[in-house]
Amino acid sequence: MQYNNIPNDPAMLLSFVNLKLRDEFSSFDEMCNSLACDKDTIIKKLKMIDYEYDKKTNQFI
Fold this sequence. Notes:
By secondary structure, this protein is mostly helical. The protein is built from three helices and two strands; from the N terminus they run H-H-H-E-E. Strands 1-2 form a two-stranded antiparallel sheet.
């Protein structure tokens, strides 16, 4: 990931990503592009704690 403020811990990452999706971005792709972060890395880390992105709700659930 290139954005320095993205948490490395999966639980903290979940909170960070869902906050950004709720407050600032209309999609996960938009967030990743804007923050210059690696989409696949985030998906893998959150899958480790059984969370997946839901387009309909625009959050990881």
